[in-house]
């Protein structure tokens, strides 16, 4: 069992998730593995770091606000007994309204054109934290995964009922749950409960999503967010899809694909205008450009600056936005 | 955990019957998780306080509607997440701390090392993707299982598992926690 898989199992065990017996048994192979032991220790060390604690007085302010709410409810009840419909704890004779909390309600009618700032995108910020941690060591420890990439990216729906998505597959690993729209790649976000919004349709995609059947047409709508996301009406309803992005020089670039992605688990490919490189250094199509602070090599199209887009080599780290794609990938400036 | 679930269910039932001391117990037990999630969402203590208060007002108003189909923690996480998203959509922008002062995690221990670690953790948290951070918070702050977190986030449990794993690996790398202490 490779370390990455064992560490995934360690993480799941740490969270109290069910781990298949054979994976628990295989952990024995890594009992003395320095990296896995360090990873296990690090899990405990993260937990030991205090989360932001409540500011002084906040609890009192919360209870004071709740007390006012209760007084208002009681006053309303006395003013209109048995006719007042109010929410809150049981009070005899008061009809309750159940709040909306039963499900995510993210999408309201935005015909009024409410503007929302900035992003809920899937972003890996490639920036500096000051003294950068030992990314070199991290990269080295990932060297053993340069072969078959681990399928530890988005759950593809294939294994959540079996081994919770931690099963490795033979190379190439299965891609995350992608869809593509106008050559841009997106990943599923939250399901939107409100289906009555008067937002305009901006096109459609063909996708089987996670189903085994043929791809079907799914309408795409403008997202209420200004982060490059879209809304797709799929088999389970209206779902927000976030662009797969990475940042370079504080600019967001979105993953593109040459072939339409018509099914979850399909890896994006280079756009057709790029000939697949014949060498590991990207030649003759690409030339090495800069490295980001995590040490990921970025490749420019020959004769073009990276600001117009760049490529990432195959088999990136599974934690990279490229997710271990066995193909070269092209990243274009995010359009919003 | 199962005992805590039973305790929560009992407190919710008692609170719904009008017992404010039971409700206060719920608040004291869970407000920390709510605040921490909101703080990591907004990166701003003031907005996090507003969100935390709003969450508990919504919880109070909806006590009778809680039917125990899910655990209280799961329900609370859903409410917290929705409140933060609603505040975000209505123009409460995500603050981008410009300097070290704004990154100070409020209310942390007096010991310098713990406070420093907290600041580093919160800085590292902001390097995570929103999806990974959200999944991590669901599990680490609210104690949700992958299945319950997935039900709130609208993704399979396997996706939650992947995101949490990715978040932890990123945090370990960003905080250099895989190096031996003192090395």
The SSE string of chain A, one letter per element, is: HHHHEHEEEEEEEEEEE
Biggest chain pair interface:
A-B, 91 and 96 residues
Structural class of chain A: alpha+beta
The percent range for helix content of chain A is: 10-25%
What's the overall geometry of chain A?
Answer: extended
What ranges of chain A have pLDDT less than 50 throughout 5 or more consecutive residues? 83-87, 90-172
Radius of gyration of chain A: 24 Å
Class based on secondary structure composition and strand pairing of chain B: mainly alpha
Tell me the strand percentage band of chain B. Answer: under 5%
Structure description:
The relative contact order of chain A is 0.13. In chain A, β7 and β8 (251-255) form a beta hairpin. Helix content of chain A is 18%, strand content 21%. Chain A has helices at residues 3-14, 21-26, 34-48, 58-79, 135-141, and strands spanning 122-124, 179-181, 184-192, 201-207, 216-222, 230-234, 237-248, 251-255, 286-291, 297-301, 310-312, 329-333. Chain A is extended. In chain B, α2 (20-42) packs antiparallel against α3 and α4 packs parallel to α7. Chain B contains eight helices and no strands. Chain B is mainly alpha-helical and 183 residues long. Chain B is 68% helix and 0% strand. At the A-B interface, α1, α3, α4, β1 and α5 of A face α2, α3, α4, α5 and α6 of B.
């Amino acid at each position: 069992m490779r370390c990455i898989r064992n560490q995934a199992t360690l993480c799941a065990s740490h969270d109290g998730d069910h781990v298949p017996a054979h994976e628990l048994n295989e952990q024995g192979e890594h009992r003395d593995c320095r990296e896995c032991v360090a990873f296990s220790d690090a899990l405990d060390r993260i937990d030991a770091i205090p989360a932001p604690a409540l500011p002084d007085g906040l609890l009192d302010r919360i209870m004071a606000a709740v007390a006012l709410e209760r007084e208002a409810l009681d006053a309303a009840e006395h003013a209109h007994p048995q006719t007042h419909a109010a929410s809150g704890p049981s009070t005899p004779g008061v009809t309750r309204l159940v709040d909306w909390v039963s499900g995510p309600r993210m999408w309201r009618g935005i015909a009024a054109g409410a503007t929302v700032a900035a992003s809920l995108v899937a972003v890996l910020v490639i920036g500096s934290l000051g003294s950068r941690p030992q990314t070199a060591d991290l990269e080295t420890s990932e060297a053993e995964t340069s072969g078959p990439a681990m399928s530890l990216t988005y759950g593809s729906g294939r294994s959540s009922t079996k081994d919770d998505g931690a099963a490795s597959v033979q190379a190439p690993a299965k891609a995350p749950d992608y869809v593509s729209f106008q050559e841009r790649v997106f990943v599923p976000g939250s399901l939107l409960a409100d289906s009555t919004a008067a937002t305009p349709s901006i096109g459609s995609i063909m996708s089987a999503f996670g189903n085994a059947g043929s791809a079907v047409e799914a309408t795409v709508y403008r997202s209420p967010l200004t982060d490059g996301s879209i809304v797709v009406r799929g088999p389970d309803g209206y779902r927000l899809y976030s662009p797969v992005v990475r940042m370079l020089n504080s600019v967001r670039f979105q993953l593109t694909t040459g072939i339409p992605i018509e099914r979850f688990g399909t890896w994006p490919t280079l756009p057709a205008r790029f000939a697949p490189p014949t060498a590991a250094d990207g030649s003759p199509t690409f030339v090495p450009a800069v490295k980001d602070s995590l040490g990921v090599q970025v490749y420019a199209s020959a004769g073009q600056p990276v600001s117009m887009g760049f490529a990432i080599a195959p088999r990136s780290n599974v934690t990279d936005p490229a997710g271990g794609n066995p193909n070269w990938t092209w990243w274009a400036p995010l359009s919003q | 955990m199962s005992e805590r679930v039973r305790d929560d269910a009992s407190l919710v039932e008692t609170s719904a019957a009008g017992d404010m001391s039971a409700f206060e117990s719920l608040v004291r037990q869970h407000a920390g998780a709510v605040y921490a999630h909101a703080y990591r969402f907004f990166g701003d203590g003031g907005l996090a306080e507003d969100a935390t208060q709003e969450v508990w007002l919504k919880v109070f108003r909806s006590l009778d509607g809680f039917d125990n189909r899910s655990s209280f923690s799961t329900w609370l996480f859903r409410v917290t997440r929705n409140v933060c998203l609603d505040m975000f959509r209505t123009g409460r922008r995500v603050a981008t701390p410009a300097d070290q002062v704004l990154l100070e995690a409020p209310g942390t221990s007096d010991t310098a090392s713990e406070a420093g670690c907290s600041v580093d953790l919160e800085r590292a948290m902001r390097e995570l993707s929103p999806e990974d951070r959200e999944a991590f918070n669901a599990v680490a702050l609210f104690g949700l299982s992958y299945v319950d977190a997935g039900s709130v986030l609208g993704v399979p449990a396997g996706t939650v598992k992947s995101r949490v794993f990715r978040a932890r690996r990123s945090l370990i790398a960003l905080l250099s926690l895989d190096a031996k202490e003192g090395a």
